[in-house]
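Long-time lurker. I teach an intro course on protein structure, and each term I like to show students one example going from raw sequence to a predicted 3D structure in token notation. This year I'd like something fresh instead of my usual example. Would anyone be willing to generate the tokens for the chain below so I can use it in lecture? Attribution to the forum is fine with me.
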Amino acid sequence: MVDTKRVLLILTYLASLGCLVWTLRDAKLGELTSDLATMNWWWLGLAVVADISVYCWQALRWRQVLRPVEPVTFRQAVRAIYVGLFANEVLPFRAGEILRCYLVSRWTKLPFSVAISSALIERIFDGIWLCLCLILTVRLVRLPHHMRWLVDGGYALGTFVLSGALLLALAVFLRQKTRALLSGEGWQRHLRVLIDDLNLIGHSRYLYFAFLQSLPYLLLQVIPIYAAMQAYGFELSIGVAFALMVILRFGSVVPQAPGNLGLFQLLTREALERIFNVVPAEAARFSLVLWGTVTIPLLIAGFVALMATGSKLFELQRAAEDHAGIIDHNRP
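-- Reply from a regular --
Happy to contribute to a lecture. Here you go:
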């Protein structure tokens, strides 16, 4: 019998490898050493600090989402997020999202299913703001024809976000009627559990605060990109960094190798070369520099957070998957 997950994993890795090879086909990698030697390390330091700070802000937002159900300390939220980020960098299919939810439920009295629902709410909020940022980007930047997929992707993401927002609204305002319509077993039962969990979170003013916090969380991600551009010597505006951030965030939705390796470099080069007229070889080399700038600090911080848990990554992954497989079976 064909293992669908393994086949998908192999195809994903091959596609990511193809993206990386295509990006670096004429990058003149021998010049990368001199590029690094001439970089402005003050700007690079700012990029690293800003990148780490982004996820501290996410921890603040996550606490707001969970506040009406279970108080979670800032330290717990940060540790769970960084372990999840580390897992995303080394494991396929963004396993860190489930892992961070498992950890915060293990450290508190928060039900695992509620933690999963809170992560879904975060993705809905991020999607709303990202779609609005895409609209602004398309209006300000003339996209080449072969990158019009961004607009199509925006429509697809917008549909998903609206569906999630509708489910959240039904859970908050029409919980009993919605549950009555989903009286069956299987996926309907899982959806009832999700609606109950969303209802627990949704009846709170803190949810609105979390929604507003999602915009600065997204905009903060512009700073590491802009600072890395300045460190590398590109005289590009913060508007360019904003557009590149939007493109990279959309690209992260696509299944790919751990750490977004491959597609990250391809999108960075294509955007800088095709939209902002950066020399192709320089755009290709910068894609590696930017990837390292936003990835290596997360690997280090995530590894430290993982060591603080006293557990091994694969042990946590198995435990989280087991919890996901038996999620609240005793609930009606």
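Some talking points for your students: The radius of gyration is 21 Å. The first helix runs from residue 4 to 23.
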